[in-house]
Amino acid sequence: MARVLIVDDAAFMRMAIKKVLVKNGFDVVAEAENGLVSIEKYKEFSPDIVTMDITMPEMTGIDALKNIRQLDPNAKVVMVSAMGQESLVREAILSGAKSFIVKPYKEEHIIQTLNSILA
Fold it and tell me: pTM score, two decimals?
């Protein structure tokens, strides 16, 4: 069972993603409301995969991604954001994101994306 850290500043988004993941056999080990907290949670829980929002207070998802990849070059981080702007997608991928899911998302798309990265 893959262990997941969900990072999003919107509590309802974290709940929605968690519901989808748990229903599909993932173990949500932690949640974080911003990039800064996500780094601490990553250190504490060593998840198999992270879902990361981009636009958040305190620290953006892209900055958190860079920090997490410095801690663990093998970290698997998937960006999940309503901002489908090409420059942000490109920056996220260049910074080490494994994939990018645009909100609103389809449940199957999240599961397929995470499973393919974990395979």
Answer: 0.95
Q: Which CATH number does the domain housing residue 58 bear?
A: 3.40.50.2300
Amino acid letter, 14: R
- The 3-state secondary structure of 11-67, one letter per residue: HHHHHHHHHHHHHCCCEEEEEECCHHHHHHHHHHHCCCEEEECCCCCCCCHHHHHHH
Tokens coding 8: 């999003």
Domain extent for 108: 3-118
Contact between residue 68 and residue 45 where contact means Cβ atoms under 8 Å apart = no
DSSP notation for 100-118: EEESS--HHHHHHHHHHHH
pLDDT in tens, 23-38: 999 999 999 999 999 9
Count of domains in the chain? 1
Identify the H or E element spanning 89: helix 86-94
Q: Write down the residue that tokens 């090409």 correspond to.
A: 86
